Amino acid sequence: MDPTTAEDSSSGANSPSSSSVPLTVDLSASEAGKLQNNGGYIIKNNVVIAKNLEGKYVAATVICSHEFKKKVVFKNNEFFCGEHDARFDQNGKGLNSKGSKGLKIYTTSISGSILTVSA
Asked: Which of 37, 30, 12 is nearest to 88 (CA)?
């Protein structure tokens, strides 16, 4: 699955860059199309925004804590870095040795059709 991407400022676990949140997503806009289905995700401003299998929105940095690669996606109801197969639960806890440093997770909230991601 190819994520929808928008390049902007970066942020991440242990990253020296400034935060890319808060940010908003209009869930009725075409950029959010992949968030209509449980398990779908997009990447915006270096944040992975997903709709988990339970239908709740979750968000995390796209920057993996293992080697700070911008490779984190949402796969199999968890955050996953394809660079070295680091896995993280939806609370940012590492699920294998490559994910042991954890992952920066953001808070999500909805008002109407606007999803807000904040620190």
From this structure: 12
C-alpha span between 1 and 22 (Å, rounded): 26
Do the Cβ atoms of 36 and 43 come closer than 8 Å? no
The answer to the question of residue 1 being in a domain is no
CATH number for position 107: 2.102.10.10
pLDDT given at position 21: 82
Q: Where are the alpha helices (DSSP H) in 31-91?
A: none
pLDDT tens-place string over residues 73-97: 999 999 999 999 999 999 999 999 9
Cα–Cα distance measured from residue 46 to residue 18, given in angstroms and rounded to the nearest whole number: 11
Residues of the chain by 3-state class (helix, strand, coil), percent to 5: 10, 35, 55
**Edge-to-edge strand order for the sheet containing 23-26?**
23-26, 114-118, 105-111, 57-61, 47-51, 41-44
11 within some domain: no
Domain count, the chain: 1
Question: Tokens 């070295």 map to which residue?
Answer: 84
